[in-house]
TrEMBL record:
Keywords per UniProt: TPR repeat
PANTHER family per the UniProt record, alphabetical: DNAJ HOMOLOG SUBFAMILY C MEMBER 7
Source organism superkingdom: Eukaryota
Repeat (TPR) residue spans along the chain: 3-36
InterPro entries: SRC_co-chaperone, TPR-like_helical_dom_sf, TPR_rpt
Protein's recorded name: DnaJ subfamily C member 7
Organism, scientific name: Pterocles gutturalis (yellow-throated sandgrouse)
Pfam families assigned to the protein according to its UniProt record, in alphabetical order: TPR_11 (PF13414)
Amino acid sequence: REAESFKEQGNAYYAKKDYNEAYNYYTKAIDTCPDNASYYGNRAATLMMLGRFREALGDAQQSVRLDDSFVRGHLREGKCHLSLGNAMAASRCFQRVLELDHKNTQAQQELKNASTVLEYEKIAEVDFEKRDFRKVVFCMDRALEFAPACHRFKILKAECLALLGRYPEAQSVA
């Protein structure tokens, strides 16, 4: 009951967009009752709102370890993977959501986003070999729209900007 009370307080702060306080209350709920998938799922959502995708990924993964049928946990795990630039792992998560709920439109859209990122990665790889660095920068910009926390994409973009002689931009991205 105490854990549920902490969760409710966390939900109230989340609704007010006070994600730091929401995080604190979800953590208290987890500390009180560490076997509840939704508490980890809620904390993952909060961490995602704070842009802390790596930590959010851990919580989302824990939520689905505790309950493999927790659809929102799989969705959040997939979104974290995608934000971090791991489109293949993201795709597996969204596929799992569709196994659990084949009409889930969010998973269907996110699956398309993941395949878009994979496509931009492939194009960038080919164009890098061809030394078409402008096109690689373009592809990385598009990929970063879906994967804003991906260091690999940012580094590749910075490298290509430097190779194009656009040093201030390269430095800013790096």
